[in-house]
Amino acid sequence: MLTSKDLMIGDWYAFRGHPYKCTASDIEALAECEEKGVPTDISEIPITAEILEKNGFDISDQEVKQYHFEEDGQRYHFSLRQMYNQKDGKPNGYSFFAFSVLTIIDYVHELQHCLKLVGINKEIIL
After folding, report:
1. In the chain, how many domains are there?
2. Hey, which of 25-29, 72-76, 77-81, 99-103 has the most confident mean pLDDT?
3. CA distance 3 to 57
4. Same domain, 92 and 55
């Protein structure tokens, strides 16, 4: 469940199943609902291969589903690799590795945060 602390301006989230780009007033309204204990209908948007490919991420290793990103001829150094459940082999999020930091991400807003941390100010489109 998303909270006001999870989102930054420009992040994508879903409200009643429809995607929205987060604004400052969205964060304020969400924080107010949290303070009052009012439930919200917002949720995360899962990362999909389609979203990655639509945003210029290319598979650099088809076997392990590892993606890279290149813009204006500059290839950015990070690893975005599909993770799989060990029990059933089904896709289970992505590992994001950059500058000796590894984190597991599942949602578009988390990908947006990771990209900002490595200096990529990319506008994600859905």
Report:
1. 2
2. 25-29
3. 28
4. yes
Strand order in the sheet with 42-43: 18-21, 12-15, 42-43
Give the separation between CA 109 and CA 79, rounded to whole angstroms: 17
| Tokens standing for residue 63 | 């076997």
State the residue range of the domain holding 94.
Answer: 49-117
Rounded to an integer, what distance in angstroms lies between the CA atom of residue 4 and that of residue 109?
12
Signed CA dihedral, 55, 19, 24, 47: sign only: negative
| pLDDT higher than 80, residue 126 | yes
Q: Please identify which residue in the block is written with the tokens 């290839």.
A: 75
Residues 25-74: pLDDT tens digits?
999 999 999 999 998 989 999 998 899 889 988 877 777 667 777 777 77
Determine what percent of the chain falls in helix, strand and coil, rounding each to the nearest 5.
25, 35, 40
pLDDT of residue 58: 81
